Amino acid sequence: MPVTVRAKGGDVLRFSFARTLIHRPCLDVERSDIDSWIMPGVRIMDARLLVFKPDCLGDDHFVRDTLIGEMLVSEQLKDALLATGDPGLKFVLPKDVWNIFWNEDRRLH
């Protein structure tokens, strides 16, 4: 969905973002290392390691996990998006999702 973003430094024209309407429980709670919950069994607040169920996407290419709210994409969609050369794309492996917020000693960056 293309939009114009107005910021202090100027406008960003033709900015695009995507939002999936498919929500699915892809996280493997038993194999993940979860530190705390916002609501137990409903929404995760913090985790040291996230492990996703194999083939949780099924035939879909773009879903949102119900427990963490992160968007998951298939390798096929990821490759197609990267082929566009868009510099604004960022893909993070499951093992690195929470590590973007925390140092090794569990303090915020």
TrEMBL record:
Protein name per its UniProtKB record: Immunity MXAN-0049 protein domain-containing protein
InterPro entries xrefs: Imm11 (IPR012433)
Short name of any one Pfam family annotated for the protein: Imm11
Residue span(s) of domain Immunity MXAN-0049 protein: 15-91
Domain of life: Bacteria
